[in-house]
Each structure stands twice: as structure tokens, then as C-alpha cells.
Structures
1.
Amino acid sequence: MALLQATLPAAAATLVVTPGQGLAEALRRAADGDVIELAAGDYRGEVGVIEQKRLTLRGVLHDVGGRPVLHAAGRHAEGKAILVVRQGEVQIENIEFRGSRVPDGNGAGIRFERGRLTVLNCAIFDNQNGILTANTADAELTVRDSEFGQAPQGMKLPHLLYVGSIARFTLSGSRLGGGAQGHLVKSRARVSEVRNNQLVDGPGGQAAYELEFPNGGDVTVVGNVIGQSAGTSNPALVSYGAEGYGAGPHSLVLSDNTLVNGASRTAVFVRVRGASPPPSLRVVDNRLYGPGDPGAALPADGNRQLPLSALPASSR
């Protein structure tokens, strides 16, 4: 019995942090499996690194004070981000990240290096990259019910969400818009699932691709609204394989999406780079609004091209 008790894990603790109390110190003190709760309010220059094998970092929402907001305010962790996730199984909930700038131009709200990271109900604005991952072959990133925007102008290709060469990436129920030269979403993951999001650059947006998979991969894109702004720097909305294909398999399923070209010039709605052997394509039942070349969205496969004036208000 004594041996059994000695091997049982200690009960998880909940550490509560308020603005000015020191998020970095709480991250140093937390043990594997603990929960850190951030009270609503503005946290200025409070950056840090998550080293634990398991951790939940949760913002406590308040009816009056809103959510906790981590402002970089000129600071960064390791020259990378407001928050660096080093390893393990980590969940981040109900937190806003703003203003990350670092000398190499790749400052992120969240820099994810390895392990499994889940981001829930977060807001990520005005960062050189919203979320940026490393190229770790077995890492997995899940983003749900979150919002990204306000890419800074005049900087090195700010992407709202840039996924490196990881195992799996899942994006669902989220809103991305307000890009600047970079992309709304760029994923090099071996498996990418993008479902039921609003990827609409919006008025004043200048994003290039709205959705790019530069090295192909096993990709599923279903039930999204994907909208290019009048100020786009690239005519393609969805791009697959533009930088060449890596090791396979390579397949693209793109179905039941609404793709909108808000620019006056001709768009390419779905651009797929040729290869030998060619990637497996299933591009079906999508709605294309505005002027443009359907690309891989062939009318014979149930894809319909319609005038911009026919676009429902709910998709604008």
C-alpha cells in the first residue's frame, strides 16, 4: 500500500494570476498537470515559456472586464513570441494576444515548438505572425472558435496562422481577416483539416492567399466561407502545391465552401500545381462568387459560379 501511494501522481493545482502579478513566475512554478487561470484585464509585457509536459492556461472571462489580454508591449520570450509552447500537451483558452514584434520579423502571439497544442476561444491580433509553429514531424495543432486579425503593415510577410511541417493541423469555427501581404492561413502539415470557418480578408485587407498548402499534403477543406478583398496582393484564393510537393500522399478534398472574389480583377478560385503523379482531387459542390477562373473547381463537379450580386448577406 505504501508503494502504491508513493507512485500516485500529486493532485493538480490551480494557480491564479492577476495583471501585474507575474505570468512568467506562475509558468515557472506550475507543475505538470496544473491549471493557470488568468483574471480578466491587461497584462503588459508579461511574456513566458511553457515547459511543462501537461498544462492548461485559461483566461477567466468577466462580464464587465472581458478577457485577459497579453500585450507584448515591446517584450518577447526568447526572441520568438509573447508565449512559447516548448513541448507536451498544452491547452490555451479565452486569452487575447496582441502586438508581438521581434528582431527577425517573426514575432508570434504563440510560438508552438513540439507536442500537442489546443487553442480555444482565443483572439490573436496585430502580431507579426498570429500563431507560428516549428517544423516538428510529430507535433499537432488544433485551433477552435478563435479569431485572428489586424496583421501589421509594412512588415516581413505577416501571416495570421502559419503552420510548419508538423503531423496534423485542425482549424474549425474560427474567423480570420485583415491580412497584410502574407496569408490568412498557410499550412505545411502532413494532414490539414479546415472546417466551418470564416476566412474573409474583409474591407482594407491585403492578404495574398486566403488559404495555402504550399507543399500539398492530405488536406480537407469543408464548409468554409473564403473571401478575397479588393486590396489583395495575389489573385488566388486557395492554393495547393505552389512550392512543390514533398513526400506523399497528396490529396485535396474541397467541398461545400463559399469562395468570394471581392476584387475587380479576375481571381483564380482554386489553384492546384500539376505533378506526376498528380495529387488526388475532390473539388465538389462549391459556390464561387465574382469574376474569376474556377481553376480546379470544375462546373462538371457541382461547382457553381455566380455573380457577386447574388452573394447572400450572411457570407459577406
Note: The radius of gyration is 21 Å.
2.
Amino acid sequence: SYSTHGEHMIPIYIFYSMFGFQRTGDAFWAAMDQMTRGFVIGATAGRTTLNGEGLQHEDGHSHLLAATNPAVVAYDPAFGYEVGHIVKDGLRRMYGEDPENVYYYLTMYNEPYPQPMQPEGVDVDGILRGMHLVSAAADGGSADGPRAQILASGVAVNWALKAQELLRDDWGVQADVWSVTSWNELRRDGLAVDRHNLLHPESERTAYVTQRLEGRPGPVVAVSDYMRAVQDQIREWVPGDFVSLGTDGWGMSDTRGALRRHFLVDAESIAVQTLARLAKSGQFDAGRLREAIDRYRLEDPSAADAGNTEGSG
């Protein structure tokens, strides 16, 4: 497609890539060398949305591979309104007044799910920089008691929102839920800040992740439909306790719900992991962890809600 810019027609390249970076990595490096600009849509993203296809089609690592390419601006959005802002800013960066030789990689999932309207006062800067608050704790942070921060990306934001309800209703824990649109961009920001602080100790800066989470109580639980190493990219700049949940290891052919229970990334697993971190700091009775595990039957993938099975492989 083309975009009119003054009197010139500017090509906007949009490529669709299935199965992530593992089959297209050399081509993406060549694109960097050729200073390509445009959008790559990483289709069938994640390790649990194209269930039944085997690990070669279940992408748990593309964002790690994307992180190795300095020309790639990678996002893992959850909602359509996030995509809209990311694409708009991408057009500005690649084709605006001061164009950059970068291209965008946006992961899209094989699973249909309802798309919310853009909230009033949406944090556009947060969407573009890598994370924004999508659901604050029900008490608005005013009540006493155990608290937590849940960071999730892509399809995992839905699991995090359900975990927020389970924690509140079943265990009296208040959690904030953040949509991490880009673990990679958050890491790049952290690395840039570290470089600046090393060279300019007289004018130190603070990483964006640190800015957003500093002063917010409770452990940080980070989850995605990717390997834990994707979320672990930001560990260094997270203030306080941090733990990640991811889809490491072999999968299996089953429902999306069973796969997520197998990998321990579903809503119930997020809730129990949050309770476990709170127990380590003495904010939750460690003796009740077994109660939570048994209540949600975490050790039994067949006990999980099958979830959305439309569009399954």
C-alpha cells in the first residue's frame, strides 16, 4: 500500500509471517542491512493459541530472536486500540519528518477474543513505551491488605484479568493488571538508561519500568504466552520482588485451557504464583498454598476450562 506525503507516494510494506522468527531470521537480518521500513505481522503467535500443531508451529521465542536485531521494534499488543496507536506511531517514526531505518514486528494470535473499547484517558505514551495500566485494583489502592502487580502481554492479559478477580474474590488480594505491549522496548529503555548513567553519573536517569512500578506495593508477577526469558528481560529494572511465568518446555495437543494449565500460565496459576510470592514476604499464610493448588487443581491439565476453541489448529 502507499501513503501520500506531500507530493510523494511513500510505500508502506506490510508482511505476514507465520511461525515467528525461527523460519525467517536470515531474511529479517537482510531487511535490516537493506534499511527496510514497514510492518511485519507475526501470525499465530504464542505457544498455546495454535494448539495441536506441535512446537514447530507454537511460537514461544520470537520476541527473544527479535531482540537480537537492532532494527526491529517488536510489540506484543493485547487489544486493537493498542495496535492502532502503535501503527500510527510507527508510521511517524518510519515515514515522518525525521524517518528512522527501523521496521516493526507485531505479534498477533490465532485466538479470537472480545476487544474492549479504548478507555477514556488511555495512556498512549505507556502503550508506545512498553506498558500501561489496564485494570487497577478494585479498591484503588486505598485499603490495607496484601497487594500485587501483574504484568502480562498479548493474549495473556486476559488470563491476568481473570487472575485479578480470583485473587480478590477468593483470597482478599488486590492486584493491578498491566498490559506490557513490548518487553523488548522496556529492556532497550533500561539498557539505554544504564549506558547514560555509566557515562553521566552526575545526571542519572530512571528506567521506564522502574518509574511505573516504584512505590506500587506487592510482588511483580510477569506472564506471557512465551518462554519466561521474554519477561525476564526486564528483571533488572523491576523494583522489589519479581517472578515470571512462561511456556517453557514441551507442549502437547489439547485444548488451549489444558495447554495453559500444563505450562502453569493460566489465570489460576497466576493467582497461585502471586499467593506464593506474598507468602515469601509473610503477607499470606504459606500453609494455605496447598489449599489454593488443590482448589484450582493446578496439577491436572484436564481440569482446566477448555476456554475459547474457535480457530484452533
Note: Residues 1-8 have pLDDT under 50 and may be disordered.
3.
Amino acid sequence: MEEPSFGFGVIHLLKKVDEYQSLSKAYKSMHMSSSKAWKIINKAEHDLGFQLIDSQSGGNKGGSSSLTQNAKKLVEQYEMFYNDIDKFASERFKHYFKEL
């Protein structure tokens, strides 16, 4: 089975969308093109099997984007996963390099 194509990059983009409430502002803050951002989101949604972003077209006032509940849960779980890995790596580093 192929692993879903999401990781730090997808999570970082989602966190920026949540921060700015705008996919456009999120990818611009990351110096990313619109096409690359949408490619990342679409691939992750396809692989995960659920929608990550709710977008509203804006007209004169501009649109907005927000994370779906599934995306919020994904971000939360990824952060817990990453924190566990970071803690483990720190412990192992101390174990192997305690004499330095």
C-alpha cells in the first residue's frame, strides 16, 4: 500500500492557512506559487480521502479559506507525532553522546 503524501510541508501549509484564513496569503508567506500550493493540497486530499480546506470565493472583499475538521485533527495528530519523535530523538542523542 502506498503511503499518503503528506508530512511537514502539507502540515506547514495547513497551519499557515489556519493562521491567515486564506490559502493565497498562506502560500505567498511561504514564497510558493498558487499552482504548487493547490497541487500539494489536492494530492494530500486524494491520498487521505478527505477534504482539507473549505474555500469561499470573495469578489471585491476577497475570499477566505479555513481548515476542515479533518484537517484540524490531522494537524493536531501530526504535531503530537512530531513531538514524540523529537522527544525520542533527544533521548537517543543523550544516550549516544552523553560523554561529549
Note: The mean pLDDT is 92.
